[in-house]
Amino acid sequence: MMNKPQNNQQSRDAYYQQQQQIYPTQKQQEEQAIIQYYIYQDFQNIMNLLFSFKQIKEYFADEPNHKAITLSYKKLIIQLNISNSIHFDLERTYQNEFAFIQDAKGKVKTMLEKLDYVIGKEHQNLIQNYRVNSLSQSVKINQLPLQQTQDFTFNENLLNQLIPQVEQIDQQIQSVKQAKYYNVPNENDIRQRADYFQALTLDRLQKSYPKNTKHFQHDSRGPQTMQQNGGNQFQNYQDIAKNPNR
Questions:
Q1: Based on the structure, what is the number of domains in the chain?
Q2: Hey, how many other C-beta atoms are within 10 angstroms of the C-beta on 25?
Q3: How far apart, in Å, are the Cα atoms of 105 and each of 46, 77, 93?
Q4: Under 8 Å CB-to-CB from 132, ≥6 apart: which residues?
């Protein structure tokens, strides 16, 4: 009879631990939503910039050394470096969510396989870099060098005319934190937004470099609001990844 209270306490403790495993706490829900936001939004950013890069190369197919191609490529490399930093910081900031992070990465890998046919063989080296430097189980900092060019100076204003501008991401982060939920996209969502991003890039190209002799058509269907590409917000992304509760 003397052991009964102790047994009851042990039962309550075991039940409480079991419930914690089944139902995440509010803090854990918030952290997992933030993790999902960074991983899937980063993937979307890369696909957006890749589709823009493809569009610019197509537009200047007869001018393979055009400065717009070089600028677009630089922005894509910058995003890959941002991605590497984000995943590096996520693994260290949320060490208790290692399994959750790896599960999200696995889903991104699956989506990449399904989108392989639209990525194209000529861009597989860029995607392979993303797989190795961002989607691996243990991420290490590995920043790709930016190719130096001598024929022109890097002009961010020109690049911003070609590729749709980044919006501030603080508001989205706050929304995710408050809701403790992130709506995870599927490969169709990723493709649709990247298509829309590509269409906006084509529109900027036609306005900046009109070509009367060529006619380009593209399916511009997509969401009415574009996802951020993160291209020129390197420090902003790093700061938020390191301090998600700011």
A1: 1
A2: 10
A3: 14, 20, 16
A4: none
Task: List, for residues 112-123, the tens digit of each pLDDT value.
Answer: 999 999 998 889
pLDDT digits (tens, 9 = 90+) for 56-81: 999 999 999 998 999 899 999 999 99
Report d(CA 135, CA 88) in Å as an integer.
10
How does 57-69 read in b/e, with b if 16+ C-beta sit within 10 Å? bebbeeeeebbbb
Q: Residue 182, class by beta-carbon neighbours within 10 Å (0-12 exposed, 13-18 middle, 19+ buried)?
A: buried
Range of the domain at 140: 26-242
Closest to 205 (Cα-Cα) out of 79, 55, 76, 74: 55
Domain contains 180: yes
* 74 inside domain: yes
Q: Is the distance from CB of 80 to CB of 46 less than 8 angstroms?
A: yes
16 domain-assigned: no
10: in domain: no
> Which whole-number Å values give the CA distances from 123 to 46, 130, 230, 234, in the listed order?
12, 11, 20, 23
Residue 109 is predicted with a pLDDT of: 97
Predicted TM-score of the model (pTM)? 0.74
Contact 26, 42 (CB under 8 A): no
Token pair, residue 153, equals 């100076």
- Between CA 51 and CA 205 the distance in angstroms is 14
C-alpha angle with apex 19: 13 to 24, nearest 5 degrees? 130
